[in-house]
User: Fold these one by one.
Assistant:
Number 1:
Amino acid sequence: MAKRKQTVIIDGRKVASELKETIKKEIAEMIDGGQDSPHLAAVLVGNDPASETYVASKEKAAHAVGMISSTYRYPADITEKELLEVVDYLNSDEEIDGYIVQLPLPDHIDENKIIHHINPAKDVDGFTPENVGKMVLGQPAFLSATPYGIMELLKYYKIPVAGKHCVVVGRSNIVGRPMSILLSQKEDGANATVTLCHSATKNLEEITRSADILIAAIGKAQFIKADMVKEGAVVIDVGIHRLKDATRKSGYHLVGDVDFKEVMKKTSFITPVPGGVGPMTIAMLLKNTLLAHKNEIYP
């Protein structure tokens, strides 16, 4: 019996760093040629710790590649009408190429109404109906950053996707659904047979064990166990959770939706948490902003 090859740990930090270096060089050439630098903005409502961390990371990454980065902060009690006015302002500001409205928003604000109000040509999160619709049709669109980043990781590591059975666990509009669509598209790096699983899926473990590529985006810490994974599968972990850990100075350690230590013993490729999918999300947001600046999606 042939010995299984050693598992490859997918290094999202490395891939993101290389992508950001490419973006940085292109922006430097723009500036040397007398053009303006791309401008990425973020709207942050309230003080959710995870949102604060993400926006701070986005701002740091944008500055590192030579982009202008602005953050518009508002209290949690901002009214829906006032937030819509902020969106209108950003839509009309010619100096801003792209922006994100950081989710989640407070309960009294209709997230869908806010998202629908965003100018699709500045929607670098890829959440507006126009960008989602274009993605479904296989037309040029701003793609949601996390699924976009996962597709880039699969390409970078030359992981075959065409004809493979890909199982996506989780059906959120931000990750699960767009992920299933991108994987099934008729183009290089895709062409998979996709099963989308969720909370109402029966025989989930049987389905996940049939996956050549398993993408865990269910939002439950260490939900995917070794007995749910096929020998030699590729496992992509989208989740990130803080677990209390008295041995750490921070008081916690990070885990994903996958029981990494046990599952990696069976995989051919696997993403760690942290350092897997996470760094790619911000890198792809920067790439979308560069595309917006160049008017490549919406000429």
Note: The chain has a mean pLDDT of 96.
Number 2:
Amino acid sequence: MAQATVVVIGGGAAGMMAALGAREKGASVILLEPNEKLGRKLYITGKGRCNLTNDCSPQEVLQHVPHNSRFLNSAVNRFPPSAVKEYFESLGVPLKTERGGRVFPRSDKSADVIDALFFTLKRRQVKLLHRRAIRLVTENGSLSGVETDDGEIIPCTAAVLATGGISYPLTGSTGDGFRLAETLDHTIMPLRGSLVPLEEEGELCSRLQGLSLRNVVFTVKDQKRKVIFQEQGELLFTHFGLSGPLVLSASAHMRDFQGNQYRGLIDLKPALDPEQLDARLLREFAGQSNKAIHNVLEGVLPRSMISLVLELCDIAGETQANAVTKKARRRLVELLKGFPIAIRGPRPAAEAIVTAGGVKTGEIEPGTMMSKKVPGLFFAGEIIDVDAYTGGFNLQIAWCTGKTAGESAAAYCRKE
């Protein structure tokens, strides 16, 4: 019969870190992961490059957590980005820092991060079982074991739930952990996707499907016309709406699709203010005065956008450049500085990078990640109701909550 002082449920980023944290503090550890490979979601993070943290202070990490950031204060300071970088370097993963403080393995390969964790687990004699946890067993209100899908109950003093969220279910994030937590009377805050593509109300995006724009500014306004997001970068038009790095980042700021209506605006020429852009168009029109406006705009816009832009400005494509009125040119400038997208809502949570919502933070002790309802039960990673913006911050949360939970579980076992 398998047994351990600590059972970690889930072999993703938070689970592997929790298992190592508990083992390094002297606990015997079993790691349960039904997938044949650990860290499957890590393989796809950062476009397969694994943006494993952000090179910033603990306070800056918290500033990138829009919801329940105070809950993470202790964990982030316990294992800040500087310590995360040092830890992975010590495991033989050279790192580099790129734009925006994003930290990647120097090899640009997620597999190097996963392999380093896997072989460290093996070297430190963490027992890996490819099974699924189906029940948390308690005795006198405290955690006492974990039942697996083969019918075995693994006795333990502590368990760490690190099963992830509901995004990318093919990687194993199927929501099992939320169901397990609920059986022990934990509150699950509403689950939804964060860092997720957006669906359009209309068909402008579908007409531009496949077009990628770089160095544009994407602004999102709420129904009160308040700017809630504005950044420069890259986005992609799809058959359903918008995707790409800018859009994923914007989605994390759009936290109330039920009670709010959001509108996106794409500044196609952020380097020019409206007056400069108007002067640029005047030069283009003067230099090609007898050409059709459709052809003239090839020097200003991606070819696949021209027909749609002219249609929205009510300008016939065959109109000669010297026949475009001042009023029509102003409409064109206005559209190039604010191409409008009516946003219907986010894509399904299964397509999101991370899950917002989860186990209520008020039911978890922030200094240890232990349940306030069930002694011996700890939480780590995406299962907790915290999520962050893009840039390595979500993995930073996984590492620091995982380490806190694992070390605290080992300390709890020593007291029992």
Note: The mean pLDDT is 94.
